[in-house]
Amino acid sequence: MTDDERAASHGLDETCRMREGAKIISPEKLECGEYVWVGENAVLDASGGLSIGSHTSIGLGVYIWSHTSQLTNLTLQNFSGSELIERRPTKIGSGVFIAGPSVILAGVTIGDKCVIAPLTVVNKDIPPYSVVSGNPSRVVKTINEDYIAAERGRVLGKAQATL
Fold it and tell me: InterPro entries annotated for this entry (predicted)?
């Protein structure tokens, strides 16, 4: 099965791609934009609501959560349908790059055009145009459209030089 076929089999837009081993929990609660790429073994938990903007890449082994069940264990009430399972919508903007393996916790909002560095645990909202890293995550750099244009020119300039 191709990446395009796999994405379609999970109900994603025809422009999306999904690698082997990726999983969507509660796909009926997933809102996904166009041109989204989901890497191998990523887990997208939409049980509490998950929205992913267009042109976003989710790297290999990334876990995105929209629920937590820790209280069910602590209270010895770990059973299916427990009222102690907390569900919170998780939102990922457009033009976001999430390097794997990283973890996005339930209820977090990641703004548009952010870069999440490898091995990052995102435990709080991230403003647009941020580069974040670490556990817990922290903004290590703020970018803007000028930065993006300069990087685009740098990469395309290299490509043109090799032709």
Answer: Hexapep, Hexapeptide_acetyltransf, Trimer_LpxA-like_sf
| CATH code, domain carrying 49 | 2.160.10.10
Tens-binned pLDDT, residue by residue, of the chain (163 aa): 899 999 999 999 999 999 999 999 999 999 999 999 999 999 999 999 999 999 999 999 999 999 999 999 999 999 988 999 999 999 999 999 999 999 999 999 999 999 999 999 999 999 999 999 999 999 999 999 999 999 999 999 876 555 4
Q: Identify the burial level of 139 via C-beta atoms within 10 angstroms of its C-beta, where 0-12 means exposed, 13-18 middle and 19 or more buried.
A: middle
Tally of domains in the chain: 1
Helices marked H in the chain = 3-9, 70-74, 145-162
Q: For residue 81, which phi and psi values (nearest 5 degrees)?
A: 85, 10
